[in-house]
Amino acid sequence: MFYAHASLEACDEIRDVIETYGRASGQLINVSKISVIFSKNVLEDLKEEVSSLLGVEMVASHEKYLGLPTYVGRKKTATFQYIKDNLAKKLNTWKGKMLSGVGKDILILVIAQALPTYAMSVFQFIKIFCKDLEQMCARF
Which of 31, 87, 90, 132 has its Cα between 20 and 30 A from that of 103? Predict the structure, then answer.
């Protein structure tokens, strides 16, 4: 992920970095997987010029990057709702299985607690969200 001012000079620098990385690593860069987002303060003409110069798609926003939300606003619970949904889906599939109390404990410890770990390593979760996850596991 690169951050830069929306200028033709910055565009040249980014392109140089991408080309240098490709040469150094021996990897081909797939420009169809690259996109660019601009601040609302950037003029439309400049957006189009930078986008075409880099040869990448211009998008309004990225939902996720490496599996994590790229923007966390005021409604943190809504942003991380996908974790609750994933946990609920897993718990529902386990409910139909005949599991002992110990089996359920192991599933919760190993899998259910691992779901939010990656996101929690990057973002500070609010206590209410963590309590919701605990309650979901307790009902299982």
Answer: 132
